[in-house]
Design goal:
The chain is of the alpha+beta class. The chain has a single domain, classed as Jelly Rolls, CATH 2.60.120. Helix content is about 30%, strand content about 25%. The protein has 7 helices and 9 strands. The strands form 2 sheets. The chain has a 6-stranded antiparallel β-sheet. Strands 6-5-8 form a 3-stranded antiparallel β-sheet, with no helix packed on it. Helix 3 crosses helix 4.
Protein backbone atom coordinates (compact mmCIF):
# COMPACT_ATOMS: atom_id res chain seq x y z
CA UNK A 1 0.00 0.00 0.00
CA UNK A 2 1.41 3.42 -0.95
CA UNK A 3 1.73 6.30 1.52
CA UNK A 4 -1.16 8.08 -0.21
CA UNK A 5 -3.36 5.00 0.08
CA UNK A 6 -2.41 4.61 3.74
CA UNK A 7 -3.29 8.26 4.41
CA UNK A 8 -6.65 7.85 2.67
CA UNK A 9 -7.50 4.73 4.68
CA UNK A 10 -6.52 6.45 7.93
CA UNK A 11 -8.59 9.53 7.13
CA UNK A 12 -11.63 7.51 6.08
CA UNK A 13 -11.46 5.45 9.28
CA UNK A 14 -11.25 8.53 11.48
CA UNK A 15 -14.00 10.39 9.66
CA UNK A 16 -16.27 7.35 10.02
CA UNK A 17 -15.44 7.08 13.72
CA UNK A 18 -15.94 10.80 14.22
CA UNK A 19 -19.41 10.67 12.71
CA UNK A 20 -20.55 8.81 15.82
CA UNK A 21 -18.71 11.10 18.22
CA UNK A 22 -20.15 14.27 19.76
CA UNK A 23 -18.61 17.53 18.61
CA UNK A 24 -18.56 20.69 20.64
CA UNK A 25 -16.37 23.10 22.59
CA UNK A 26 -13.98 20.42 23.87
CA UNK A 27 -13.21 19.12 20.38
CA UNK A 28 -12.92 22.63 18.99
CA UNK A 29 -10.58 23.56 21.85
CA UNK A 30 -8.35 20.56 21.17
CA UNK A 31 -8.15 21.43 17.48
CA UNK A 32 -7.43 25.05 18.27
CA UNK A 33 -4.68 24.03 20.68
CA UNK A 34 -2.99 21.93 17.99
CA UNK A 35 -3.32 24.69 15.39
CA UNK A 36 -1.80 27.33 17.68
CA UNK A 37 1.18 25.09 18.41
CA UNK A 38 1.67 24.18 14.74
CA UNK A 39 1.62 27.83 13.71
CA UNK A 40 3.96 28.77 16.55
CA UNK A 41 6.44 26.27 15.11
CA UNK A 42 5.92 27.71 11.61
CA UNK A 43 4.76 24.35 10.21
CA UNK A 44 2.35 24.19 7.30
CA UNK A 45 -0.55 21.76 7.32
CA UNK A 46 1.12 19.80 4.55
CA UNK A 47 4.45 19.55 6.37
CA UNK A 48 2.89 18.39 9.64
CA UNK A 49 0.79 15.87 7.73
CA UNK A 50 3.89 14.55 5.97
CA UNK A 51 5.73 14.14 9.28
CA UNK A 52 2.93 12.16 10.93
CA UNK A 53 1.95 10.27 7.75
CA UNK A 54 -1.66 11.43 7.40
CA UNK A 55 -3.35 13.66 4.83
CA UNK A 56 -3.32 17.48 5.11
CA UNK A 57 -7.11 17.33 4.89
CA UNK A 58 -7.27 15.22 8.04
CA UNK A 59 -5.05 17.66 9.95
CA UNK A 60 -7.24 20.56 8.78
CA UNK A 61 -10.43 18.84 9.90
CA UNK A 62 -8.96 18.00 13.30
CA UNK A 63 -7.82 21.60 13.81
CA UNK A 64 -11.27 22.91 12.92
CA UNK A 65 -12.97 20.56 15.35
CA UNK A 66 -14.73 18.64 12.59
CA UNK A 67 -13.03 15.27 13.15
CA UNK A 68 -12.07 13.57 16.40
CA UNK A 69 -8.54 12.13 16.08
CA UNK A 70 -7.79 8.53 16.92
CA UNK A 71 -5.41 7.72 19.77
CA UNK A 72 -2.58 6.96 17.35
CA UNK A 73 -3.05 10.15 15.32
CA UNK A 74 -3.24 12.36 18.40
CA UNK A 75 -0.11 10.75 19.89
CA UNK A 76 1.74 11.30 16.60
CA UNK A 77 0.70 14.95 16.26
CA UNK A 78 1.43 15.73 19.90
CA UNK A 79 4.86 14.08 19.67
CA UNK A 80 5.74 16.00 16.51
CA UNK A 81 4.70 19.28 18.17
CA UNK A 82 6.49 18.29 21.40
CA UNK A 83 3.29 18.63 23.41
CA UNK A 84 2.66 16.53 26.48
CA UNK A 85 -0.75 14.94 26.85
CA UNK A 86 -1.31 17.24 29.85
CA UNK A 87 -0.91 20.24 27.55
CA UNK A 88 -3.63 18.91 25.28
CA UNK A 89 -6.08 19.20 28.17
CA UNK A 90 -5.39 22.95 28.32
CA UNK A 91 -8.43 24.69 26.84
CA UNK A 92 -6.79 28.05 26.27
CA UNK A 93 -5.15 29.32 23.09
CA UNK A 94 -1.85 30.11 24.72
CA UNK A 95 1.19 29.41 22.56
CA UNK A 96 4.39 27.64 23.51
CA UNK A 97 5.95 31.03 24.20
CA UNK A 98 3.54 31.68 27.05
CA UNK A 99 3.69 28.32 28.82
CA UNK A 100 5.83 29.72 31.60
CA UNK A 101 3.11 32.13 32.70
CA UNK A 102 2.24 29.88 35.66
CA UNK A 103 4.84 30.79 38.26
CA UNK A 104 5.92 28.62 41.16
CA UNK A 105 3.97 30.89 43.49
CA UNK A 106 0.79 30.45 41.45
CA UNK A 107 1.21 26.68 41.48
CA UNK A 108 1.79 26.74 45.20
CA UNK A 109 -1.61 28.30 45.80
CA UNK A 110 -3.45 25.54 43.94
CA UNK A 111 -4.87 22.47 45.66
CA UNK A 112 -3.03 19.23 44.89
CA UNK A 113 -6.35 17.37 44.95
CA UNK A 114 -8.14 16.52 41.71
CA UNK A 115 -11.83 15.95 42.40
CA UNK A 116 -13.60 13.29 40.35
CA UNK A 117 -16.22 15.66 38.95
CA UNK A 118 -13.66 18.25 37.86
CA UNK A 119 -11.32 16.17 35.71
CA UNK A 120 -10.20 17.51 32.34
CA UNK A 121 -11.39 15.19 29.57
CA UNK A 122 -10.54 14.37 25.96
CA UNK A 123 -12.83 12.10 23.96
CA UNK A 124 -11.13 10.47 20.98
CA UNK A 125 -12.43 8.74 17.88
CA UNK A 126 -14.10 5.38 18.26
CA UNK A 127 -14.99 5.66 21.94
CA UNK A 128 -11.72 6.23 23.80
CA UNK A 129 -11.85 8.70 26.70
CA UNK A 130 -8.89 10.17 28.58
CA UNK A 131 -9.36 12.02 31.87
CA UNK A 132 -6.42 13.76 33.54
CA UNK A 133 -5.87 12.64 37.14
CA UNK A 134 -3.53 15.45 38.16
CA UNK A 135 -4.89 18.76 39.44
CA UNK A 136 -2.56 20.64 37.10
CA UNK A 137 -0.22 19.79 34.21
CA UNK A 138 2.79 17.66 35.11
CA UNK A 139 5.81 17.82 32.82
CA UNK A 140 7.20 14.48 34.01
CA UNK A 141 4.22 12.14 33.68
CA UNK A 142 0.87 11.75 31.91
CA UNK A 143 -1.41 10.31 34.65
CA UNK A 144 -4.78 9.31 33.19
CA UNK A 145 -8.08 7.54 33.79
CA UNK A 146 -8.72 5.75 30.48
CA UNK A 147 -11.90 4.18 29.11
CA UNK A 148 -12.07 2.03 25.97
CA UNK A 149 -15.77 1.71 25.18
CA UNK A 150 -17.17 -1.44 23.57
CA UNK A 151 -15.48 -1.89 20.19
CA UNK A 152 -12.96 0.92 20.78
CA UNK A 153 -9.37 0.63 19.62
CA UNK A 154 -6.32 2.87 19.64
CA UNK A 155 -5.69 2.26 15.93
CA UNK A 156 -6.63 -0.26 13.21
CA UNK A 157 -5.20 -3.77 13.54
CA UNK A 158 -2.77 -3.22 10.66
CA UNK A 159 -1.55 0.18 11.86
CA UNK A 160 0.23 -0.05 15.22
CA UNK A 161 1.95 3.09 16.52
CA UNK A 162 4.81 4.08 18.82
CA UNK A 163 6.03 7.14 20.69
CA UNK A 164 8.52 8.15 23.35
CA UNK A 165 8.42 7.04 26.97
CA UNK A 166 7.30 4.05 29.00
CA UNK A 167 3.69 3.16 29.73
CA UNK A 168 2.23 1.70 32.92
CA UNK A 169 -1.39 0.58 33.30
CA UNK A 170 -3.68 -1.04 35.88
CA UNK A 171 -6.99 -2.50 34.71
CA UNK A 172 -9.97 -1.58 36.90
CA UNK A 173 -12.78 -3.30 34.98
CA UNK A 174 -13.56 -4.90 31.64
CA UNK A 175 -11.00 -6.56 29.40
CA UNK A 176 -8.36 -4.88 27.27
CA UNK A 177 -6.35 -6.33 24.41
CA UNK A 178 -2.73 -5.25 24.04
CA UNK A 179 -0.26 -5.99 21.28
CA UNK A 180 3.37 -4.99 21.77
CA UNK A 181 5.55 -5.93 18.84
CA UNK A 182 4.62 -9.49 17.85
CA UNK A 183 3.17 -10.42 21.26
CA UNK A 184 -0.53 -10.16 22.14
CA UNK A 185 -2.02 -10.09 25.65
CA UNK A 186 -5.47 -9.99 27.23
CA UNK A 187 -5.73 -7.96 30.43
CA UNK A 188 -8.53 -8.14 32.99
CA UNK A 189 -9.44 -6.52 36.33
CA UNK A 190 -6.47 -6.42 38.67
CA UNK A 191 -3.92 -7.03 35.89
CA UNK A 192 -1.17 -4.50 35.27
CA UNK A 193 1.39 -3.96 32.55
CA UNK A 194 4.40 -1.84 31.71
CA UNK A 195 6.14 -1.58 28.34
CA UNK A 196 8.46 0.56 26.24
CA UNK A 197 6.19 2.83 24.21
CA UNK A 198 8.80 3.10 21.45
CA UNK A 199 7.84 -0.45 20.49
CA UNK A 200 4.93 -0.68 18.03
CA UNK A 201 1.75 -1.25 20.04
CA UNK A 202 -2.02 -1.29 19.88
CA UNK A 203 -4.93 -1.41 22.38
CA UNK A 204 -8.55 -2.48 22.02
CA UNK A 205 -11.58 -3.29 24.17
CA UNK A 206 -12.60 -6.96 24.43
CA UNK A 207 -16.15 -8.14 25.04
CA UNK A 208 -19.41 -6.36 25.72
CA UNK A 209 -18.35 -4.02 28.53
CA UNK A 210 -16.01 -1.01 28.49
CA UNK A 211 -12.42 -1.48 29.60
CA UNK A 212 -11.43 0.98 32.33
CA UNK A 213 -7.84 1.54 33.45
CA UNK A 214 -5.45 3.85 35.24
CA UNK A 215 -2.62 4.84 32.92
CA UNK A 216 0.72 6.58 33.32
CA UNK A 217 3.28 7.54 30.69
CA UNK A 218 6.70 8.85 31.66
CA UNK A 219 9.39 10.50 29.51
CA UNK A 220 6.99 10.64 26.56
CA UNK A 221 8.85 13.40 24.73
CA UNK A 222 12.16 11.50 24.91
CA UNK A 223 11.89 10.02 21.44
CA UNK A 224 14.17 10.88 18.54
CA UNK A 225 11.66 9.30 16.16
CA UNK A 226 8.91 11.74 17.14
CA UNK A 227 5.88 9.46 17.32
CA UNK A 228 6.54 7.39 14.22
CA UNK A 229 3.66 5.22 13.08
CA UNK A 230 4.11 1.80 11.48
Amino acid sequence: MSNDDSQDVQQEAEVRAASAEPSGPALESLGRRLRVEREHRDLSLRELARRVNVSPSLISQIERGLVTPSVSTLWSIASELELTIDELFNDSERSAASRTANTAGERGRRSPVQRRDGRKRIRLAGGVVWERLTAEPDETVDFLHVVYEVGAESCPADSMFRHGGKEYAYIISGRLGLQVGFETYELGPGDSVSFDAQLPHRLWAIGNTPAVAIWAVINRTNDSRGGTRD
